[in-house]
Each structure stands twice: as C-alpha cells, then as structure tokens.
Amino acid sequence: MRFLTSVSHDLDERVAISRLSDHLAKADLVSLLCYYTEDYVPDKLVKELRVAFPGIPFIGCSSCKGVMTETGFHLGPVIALMGIYDKHPCAYGTGLIDMASCEDKHQIATKAIEQALASADRIGEVPSLVVLHATPGYEESFIDAIDQKFGTQVPIIGGSAADNHIQQQWSIISDKGVSNDGLTMQLFFPSKPLTTGFSAGYSPTEFEGIITKSHNRTIYEIDGKPAKDVYRKWIQLHAGENISEQYIFDHIARFPIGRIAGTIYEQPYYKLTHPLQLTPEGGLELFANVADNESICLMTGSLDQLISRASRVIKEANTKNYHESLVLGAIIIHCGGSMLRLGAEIEKVYAKLLSQMNGQPFICPFTFGEQGRFICGENAHGNLMISSVIFYESE
C-alpha cells in the first residue's frame, strides 16, 4: 500500500485534472481523495475525474481557502488529489446521497452506506474506516446512523464541506455525483492497518454553565440568561477586554464552547463548537447540535497550541503503532476556522506535520466541522478540531 499526492492551481478543470492525472501513477490505483477551493465547478471536476480515472472510486469536498499536502500549504485556487494504491484483498467503495432525496437523515446515511458497500462489493461486511464528507447541518445524525448500521464504532474520519466566507458555496463530490446539500462517504477495506486520532487542542477555562434553553444547533439560554450575553461576558472576564457585540465574532476561534466528550484517567477531554451567528432573541447559532441540561464551558487556545496540535494528533495516533512500523501516509482534517486564525503561522503547522510524518504523503483539507474517533472509541462531530488517520506497514 502506498500514497501519492498532486496539486494544481490551474483554474480550468479539464487542464487541472489532466495535469494532476499525469503526476499520479495508474497501476494499483484503487481510490482517490479530492479537495478543492470554491473557485471550481464541482460538476466539471467530477466529469474530468471520471474521464481521467475511469472506474476508480473517489470522494472529496470543498475546502476553505486552500489545502495542505506534504509539499506545502497551497492557497487557492487549488485542487489536490491523493491517490491510494493497494492490492488484494483490499476494497474501496463510495456512496453519495442528496438531501432532496429523503427527509430522514438516518435513512440518507444508511442509503449511502449500502451504496458504498455495493460499490466495494463487500455487502454485509464491516469496513476498517469510514471517510465522511457532508455539507454542514446534520453530521451528528449521520454518525449515529453509521454506528447503528455496523453495530460497532467503526473509525470515522471526516470534514464538513467549506467555502471561503461562510456563504454556502460549499459542495461534496464522488464518482457517484455532486451535491450542495448532502453527504458522501468512502468505505475502506485496506490491506494495511491504520490508527486514528481526534483532538480539540484547547483548554477549559473557569467559566462554566448549563444550557437551559436550546433547539438543535442554537443555544438560547445559559443558566436562564440570554446565551449571547453570557458568552460575551465569559470572554470579557477571561480576556480582560471590553468586547462589543459587534466584534464578538472576532474572538470565536480563540474562545470556542466546550462540552465534555469523555474522561481518561479521570481527566476530561472535550469536543468543541463555535457560534455561527447571533439570533434576534439573543441566542447563539452553532455549527454542532446541543441539548438542554448540557454542561458547557468557555475554552481557550493560544497560537502555540494551535500550531502544535496537528502534529500532536499525528503523534498520538502513531503511538498506537506499537512496533513503530513504517508510516505509509495519512489523511488529516483541519478546521478552517483555526486555519484562518493562524494566518501565516499555518506554515509552522505544515513544518511540524512534515516532520512528524517523516516526509511521507498526507492530504489535509480545511473544513467547517470535523468528525473523528476519540481515544476511548466513540465517534463524534465537533468544530475547531483536528482529525487524522495514519496507515502503516504491518510487521
């Protein structure tokens, strides 16, 4: 098993995919991942990928501002491909379902799974990995459906499609088609073992509260008070700054909301979410579901923490590689919001990742929601997170 990546800044989809194809070997190619900025027409990408790689399953999604591979951080317009090369008894299969086809979110995910299993010719089997990409909105329901379908917590790595300015210019693609409102997944039955990692990289502050009124992805009240007012007060008290309502969103990537996802050695670990916008009622609309009576806290993360956490997630995932076997390649999902906060410092993230991967291939889109498997085995959706999967040579 091996991996190759290729990057193009050509704006013409036909020219870009042709040049990408020239850089990727065809022998033993079994799967593709494709990440691109909003500058490209997804229907044209799918058409050209089908022509350049006939019969090869692929999935992908739009990425915020750029993509990253072992060759660097590539600012858009850009398309990046990762070719996965494997041999028998491997199998890879994709599914894509548009929301318009069904209102039941569990049923949508189940249909995509069945489509992918049929595509891989592995009906009735349990994959080693699910790569999930959806447009923002229902990621928790999709994860629940995947867990229920397989009856066990198959590792998930995923990222919600993103655009450059949160204007819903996002999309998902696969060899099955395109959607601006749906989900796609690829099921992996690889010939080599893999390990996963999922981490927040932020620390809890002393400011905590209980959600007393919410609905789906909106918090209306915290401790019986308007959520907007409580959130702003928390930030002001922790940062020591007088923050106006107009500028509250300048601080979101510094101060997300955390919820305890589990504990290990009596220490909690968190999944994050961050507000998308304020509601007229003084609520906070989020990029993840919440529920009444949930305990939440203000989280904080320094630039140094954000720079080091991606490589730390790779390192933690690789500690499960007990025999220190050769790393073959990795898929890494990095939050778009965190990337935007880092600015030029994203180059330091790249340098740390390259070192941790020993120069081996990886691909990394910047997404508006991250899915992964926590250290205790549960799959979850969060924001401002880092998710990864590493493939390695077995002993």
Automatic annotation (TrEMBL):
Return the InterPro entries for the record. FIST_C, FIST_domain_N
Q: Report domain FIST C-domain positions.
A: 227-374
Task: Give the domain of life.
Answer: Bacteria
Specify the FIST domain's residue ranges: 28-226
Name of the featured protein: FIST C-terminal domain-containing protein
